[in-house]
Specification:
With 227 residues, the chain is of the alpha/beta class. It has nine helices and eight strands. Helix 2 crosses helix 4, helix 4 packs parallel to helix 8 and helix 7 crosses helix 8. The structure holds 2'-deoxycytidine-5'-monophosphate. 2'-deoxycytidine-5'-monophosphate binds next to helix 2, helix 4 and helix 8. The site of 2'-deoxycytidine-5'-monophosphate has 13 residues, from helix 2, helix 4 and helix 8.
């Protein structure tokens, strides 16, 4: 078994905030795998290769990503030497990240990088396929979800705080379209692992979700260490 906690779920379910806070509480590292797909999508868009599959698959060869962590749990995403942390959060990159994440070659490369980052253990990994595919042997798995309306409102507020102009209806439509894409793709569709604990975050605060998870992780870790 791996000393990894996986948190999967749709966009806006609160995965990132919760994963960061849980990692901090457990003294684990935090891996935001969505940021990896986003960084690659950004790279493809910057090069103008979005309509040229051959060319963007080629880009995977030299794709490099690094995370820099600050003491407060925040992170910077460095892709091919450039800080892209804020650039990868636009609606355009979100949509394109969802689109290219259906591609087998893209998933293979990201999966390889993710497993490497998980080798050292003590990791909270968040994404769509962490518990079902990448870290099947994780000792604790969660699937975090919330209604599309609650998720859209959260994402809308986040974008406003970052001064990215948008409107609520547009964000809701985007969320629904991405849910559809992420859940219905052939490879690694978004779904809970059979052994994941399901948590509905619609009516819970971040603190409540983190505390719930923390208790479960501690119990599972205890059981696992006795095995
Ligand atoms: O979690 P996020 O919204 O930052 O992820 C952006 C996109 O990346 C999402 O629409 C689907 C894709 N993704 C994925 O396919 N697998 C992951 N493990 C993480 C993200």
């Amino acid at each position: 078994m791996l000393e990894v906690v996986t948190i999967d779920g749709p966009s806006g379910s609160g995965k990132s905030t919760v994963s960061k806070a849980l990692a901090l509480k457990l003294n684990y590292n935090y891996l935001d795998t969505g940021a990896m797909y986003r960084a690659f999508a950004f790279e493809v868009l910057s090069k103008g290769f979005e309509n040229n599959r051959e060319k963007y698959i080629e880009l995977l060869k030299d794709f490099q990503i690094k995370f820099h962590y600050n003491d407060d749990g925040s992170q910077r995403v460095i892709c091919n030497g450039k800080d892209v942390s804020d650039l990868i959060r636009t609606p355009e990159v979100s949509m394109w990240a969802s689109t290219i994440s259906k591609e087998k070659e893209v998933r293979e490369k990201m999966g390889y990088l993710q497993r490497k980052m998980g080798e050292a253990g003590k990791l909270v990994a968040e994404g769509r396929d962490m518990g079902t595919i990448i870290f099947k042997d994780a000792f604790a798995k969660f699937f975090l979800f919330a209604t599309p309306e609650v998720r859209a409102l959260r994402r809308f507020k986040e974008l406003l705080e970052k001064n990215i102009s948008t409107d609520y209806e547009e964000v809701l439509e985007d969320i629904k379209r991405r849910d559809e894409q992420d859940s219905n793709r052939d490879i690694a569709p978004l779904k809970p692992a059979d052994d994941a604990v399901l948590i509905d975050s619609s009516k819970l605060t971040v603190e409540e979700v983190v505390n719930k998870m923390y208790v479960i992780v501690m119990e599972k870790r205890q059981l696992w260490k006795f095995m």
